[in-house]
Design brief:
heterodimer, A: about 450 residues, alpha/beta, Alkaline Phosphatase, subunit A, 8-stranded mixed β-sheet, disordered N terminus, B: about 575 residues, mainly alpha, two-stranded antiparallel sheet, 11 strands, about 5% strand
């Protein structure tokens, strides 16, 4: 190989021989660890998704009777029957407060996503960010975060005080993923954009100037600035990707333009936006724009149009129907939420890649905040995983983990995705015992 | 640091002093250390903080430096609220990858606009020899000027050289001088030194062993406090000349800045933050239940309350507490329909003016900001009113009090029965709280306040009855009883916590952290003079700006634990932000 034919000298040549100092771009197709050589027939990379639904399900109506393989879905999870062979149900696990006050609808979210409760102003990163570091550090987007019921709240937390903002609008997400900066990997011609090249060179020229700030700050601020530089690296990587002829990806198709939308405050808007988001995510994954997504289904005052009370109020105010044995209107919302989740999965599953689907190489982790929202219980939590992560997770099982911390599931999923940790969580929520029956 | 060419003589002197102090401490003379520490320990200031610019500060700086017609072409990440303020959360957050994409896109949009054909002559003090080639001198002049305003201090020689070089690379790559310079400016706008407000400390000659902000950090502290924006050229000149270290020099700048129209920008920003008006971004009402409450009404309601407040504290420079009782406000035709008063857009010489001054009658239940749509609608769920949410907001926002979270093991059965009995007034429904001991303790400090505002429905419109039953708006706030919303407003205005809360929030916002124990005496004095000055907010801000306490700090390692370390960080609560449903 001619050592002079580096990317650096190529870029320099393109820029007409000016003194350009370009940090060598990271090339997905060259620096490949995780089976990313999409064009060469190697296995497709795994994908991780999280789905958080507040307010749980009804006790007694979701847990499968049978333990282990060959379970049948109980009534509130029947809607997931198309995925029964590819899903796992984990029951019995709990959130531990370790003497801290229960912040209803918050503590559970924190333990589920971070494996711990925040101490003072510091909180641990959420598990999706560890997984993204391993399975998708060089994709265009580290992760895509979606808020289904409006707002920009996100449950994804990075190191150094980073809150990954959520996107509530499918049209805006379309622009971000497939707008002007998208490079179709299957386009016939590739010409690097001169302006992108200039931007990349200027960014490189300013790296040292920016780094100086690190010499002046204390430890806490250093972590925050580290987070800033990590974020800057994504911008640089996006430019590198834009400047590199992409390897063709057979199954990648640019989606239809997402229509303008309204924020998801009512069930109608949530239903519509959910389908658009799911389609965008399927295309984004197929085109390898990201390998991690987080959906915050939330409930954020979710109401039916004209409904005076929202789902959350109903969990506390609606009496249990004496004939049915559960809260009727609350259960309507539960069915709406699981139906929405099923629809999202269906969209991922209908996007075909080779002889499988986008869903087949994903692991989607479904969690909730309470065991029973009506009384804010923290035990016997329903937890689901859907998808085998291209053979990394065994599926079709109902695992009982009575009294164990929920973090066993988080640890299992992280290990399946290749995160090299042997324990996860803090205090009583810490575990070093993955659900070995699920690890392939 | 290699900053020789840019160092003015006073800076060099300070540098020498600092080196001397370090040397002294470094020598390890036990006696000297004990003496220095004990002097300093009398009144130790809180730690210095590094703050991320808030979205509003970013916008203000771009407008102040480059003109207010520059379109940011993007949106910033939501800010984090801690200890009641985004200004405090700004010292705890960083930038996520998705956020950096936005900063990068905005930096390029701004830089391209300021160097386009319409703007470049207004901002650039020189013309390049030719537009296709790189003119180093012109680039250097321009980047020196812009860099000083964006970095809030002169660039060091190394920094300037990096930006000149970036402009050169950019020019050569694009074959256009202005494009090249725009790329360099875009780099500056996404630099951590612009996006984060660093504080540089120097030994404090008035408190041996202690530290104070250096002249440029001092200028920023002052400018963000009064204007919510970066220092202007004159303030930076004063900092560079060492003028801010003398009482008179500081006072001259404070008085100049207090007289500037930008003071309104700073006061607005404070109240938007303090009263959580950022939550208007996600405020929505059910269109079937509240057909009048459109997005434009929502925006105008927010503006109405800000105008009401500014009329009291800025235009009339009246008693701050009047914001809770004043009958004076401003209306638009659309707001008029919610308030059920006719408003016609008209202005002097027939020029249309949306905003009209309006005064409610003395007997009107409306009066003060608590009875305005911005408060009553913002603190209500989408489909109804909630006295609990309003009461909680009043305690936490206006009185700086903390209402504990609900316990985890609540027995809701009694409440279910009350709901099942059918429609009734909130007072009847919420009476259940008193009968459940675990609920009663907290709800008795929230519900009665909110019940006094029940004449205003979930969108802030007046009603005399709820589900056909007349509304009883009587209540008690900290042993003061009243019969209606006007009585509540006066009780809030006269409650000592109200004025004390303003001082606490203003100082915490200025520091980017709650005040430390060493600063408590100063805050107490501020509160006393606030009262003796007739609760004039401008005078209070002036007092704060004059105080040396505003410009003192300890190093982050020096202070034993951050004063805010045990305050809970406001992780956005998926269910309980104030305009959403709360149990009950």
């Amino acid at each position: 190989m001619n050592p002079r034919l580096t990317r650096r000298s190529m870029l320099r040549g393109m820029l007409g021989g000016t003194a350009v100092s370009v940090a060598l771009p990271f090339l997905d197709c060259f620096l490949n660890e995780q089976g990313t050589a999409l064009a060469s027939g190697a296995p497709l990379p795994p994908v991780f998704g999280s789905w958080f639904q507040n307010l749980s399900l009804n006790p007694g109506r979701w847990k499968p009777e049978r333990v282990g393989a060959g379970f049948q879905n109980n009534v509130e999870l029947k809607v997931l029957d198309p995925f029964r062979e590819r899903m796992n149900v984990i029951s019995g696990a709990k959130y531990f407060l370790d003497g801290r006050p229960l912040e209803t609808h918050v503590s559970g979210v924190q333990i589920a996503t971070m494996g711990s409760l925040p101490f003072g102003t510091t909180s641990d990163p959420s598990l999706d960010t560890f997984i993204a570091e391993v399975i998708g550090p060089r994709t265009r987007f580290r992760s895509v975060d979606i808020a289904l019921s409006g707002g920009r709240q996100s449950l994804s937390r990075g190191k150094g005080g980073v809150i990954n903002p959520s996107e509530p609008s499918p049209a805006a997400l379309y622009a971000r993923l497939f707008g002007a900066d998208f490079r179709d990997p299957n386009a016939a011609n590739f010409t690097p954009d001169a302006h992108d090249m200039a931007r990349r060179s200027v960014l490189s020229a300013l790296t040292d100037e920016r780094r100086q700030i690190m010499t002046r700050v204390g430890a806490a601020d250093r972590a925050r600035l580290d987070a800033y530089f990590t974020s800057v690296r994504q911008v640089e990587q996006q430019l590198d990707i834009a400047l590199t002829a992409p390897a063709p990806i057979e199954s990648c198709r640019k989606p239809e333009l997402a229509p303008q939308d309204e924020p998801g405050k009512t069930v109608g808007a949530v239903e519509k936006n959910n389908k658009l988001f799911a389609q965008l995510m399927a295309h984004a994954i197929a085109c390898d724009q990201t390998r991690v997504f987080n959906v915050n289904f939330g409930t954020q005052g979710l109401r039916t149009p004209g409904g005076v009370r929202d789902w959350h109020s109903l969990t506390h105010e609606e009496p249990i129907d004496p004939l049915l044995g559960y809260q009727k209107d609350v259960t309507w919302f539960i069915n709406f939420a699981t139906g929405t989740f099923a629809q999202f999965l269906q969209e991922l599953d209908s996007y075909r890649e080779g002889d499988g689907s986008v869903l087949d190489r994903a692991v989607v982790l479904w969690q909730t905040d309470h065991g029973y929202a009506r009384t804010h219980t923290m035990d016997d939590l329903p937890i689901l995983t859907i998808g085998g992560g291209a053979g990394r997770l065994k599926t079709g099982r109902h695992v009982v983990a009575t009294g164990d911390p929920t973090s066993r599931v988080g640890l299992t999923v992280q290990q399946a995705m290749g995160v090299s940790i042997n324990s996860w969580g803090r205090l009583s929520n810490k575990t070093s015992k993955p659900l070995t029956e699920l690890l392939a | 640091m290699n900053a020789k060419p840019m160092n003015s003589p006073p800076r060099r002197q300070r540098f020498r002093k600092w080196m001397f102090a370090l040397l002294l401490m470094g020598m390890g003379s036990a006696l000297a250390c004990v003496v220095l520490k004990s002097r300093h320990a009398e009144n130790p200031p809180g730690p210095s903080v590094t703050r991320l610019l808030t979205a509003d500060q970013y916008r203000n700086i771009v407008a102040d430096v480059f003109g207010d017609d520059i379109d940011l072409g993007g949106r910033l990440e939501p800010d984090l609220r801690a200890d009641g303020l985004l200004a405090v959360g700004a010292a705890q957050v960083s930038i996520a990858p998705a956020g950096m994409e936005q900063y990068d896109a905005m930096a390029r949009a701004v830089a391209n606009q300021i160097l386009d054909a319409n703007h470049r002559d207004g901002v650039m003090p020189c013309h390049p020899a030719g537009s296709a080639a790189f003119d180093e001198l012109c680039a250097r002049i321009f980047l020196t000027k812009v860099g000083r305003l964006l970095y809030r201090r002169p660039l060091t020689a190394v920094e300037l050289q990096a930006y000149v070089k970036a402009a050169k690379i950019g020019t050569e790559a694009s074959a256009d001088f202005y494009d090249g310079v725009a790329l360099s400016v875009a780099g500056m706008l996404s630099s951590p030194k612009f996006l984060f407000r660093e504080e540089t400390l120097e030994p404090d000659p008035d408190h041996r062993g202690g530290y104070r902000l250096d002249a440029y950090s001092k200028a920023s502290q002052l400018s963000f406090f009064l204007w919510n924006s970066a220092p202007d050229g004159m303030l930076l000149d004063a900092a560079g000349a060492g003028a801010l270290n003398s009482r008179q020099g500081l006072a001259r700048q404070v008085d100049r800045m207090m007289a500037s129209p930008r003071l309104e920008q700073g006061m607005r920003a404070f109240f938007v933050d303090d009263f959580r008006f950022d939550e208007f971004e996600t405020l929505a009402k059910d269109a079937m239940l509240f057909p009048k409450f459109s997005a434009s009404v929502s925006g105008e309601a927010r503006e109405q309350t800000l105008r009401t407040i500014l009329d009291v504290v800025l235009t009339r420079d009246a008693d701050y507490r009047e914001i809770f009782t004043t009958k004076k406000t401003f209306m638009t035709p659309e707001l008029g329909s919610i308030y059920q008063v006719p408003i016609f857009a008209a202005g002097p010489n027939g020029a249309p003016d949306e905003w009209q001054p309006y005064e409610f009658a003395a007997t009107d239940p409306r009066g003060g900001i608590l009875t305005q749509v911005a408060f009553t609608a913002l603190h209500s769920p989408a489909g109804r009113s909630s006295p609990t949410i309003r009461g909680k907001a009043l305690r936490e926002i206006m009185l700086c009090q903390t209402v504990p979270s609900p316990p985890g093991d609540v027995d809701f059965s009694k409440f279910e029965l009350a709901s099942a009995r059918g429609d009734s007034t909130a007072r009847v429904r919420l009476s259940v709280h008193a009968s459940v001991p675990t609920c009663a303790g907290c709800h008795k400090i929230m519900d009665p306040l909110g019940l006094s505002l029940e004449h205003f429905d979930g969108a802030g419109e007046f009603r005399s009855a709820d589900h056909g039953a007349p509304i009883d708006a009587s209540g008690t706030l900290d042993n003061v009883s009243y019969s209606d919303s006007s009585g509540l407003a006066h009780a809030v205005a006269e409650n000592p916590a109200t004025s004390s809360c303003l001082v606490d929030r203003l100082t915490a916002g200025a520091f980017g952290r709650p005040t430390s124990s060493g600063e408590r005496l100063w805050v107490k004095q501020l509160k006393q003079s606030f009262a003796s000055d007739g609760y004039r907010m401008k005078k209070l801000m002036q007092n704060i700006a004059y105080s040396e306490a505003l410009y003192r700090a300890s190093t982050p390692t020096e202070s034993s634990g951050r004063s805010g370390a045990f305050a809970t960080i406001a992780i956005p609560d998926p269910l309980l932000t104030s305009n959403q449903e709360l149990p009950k």
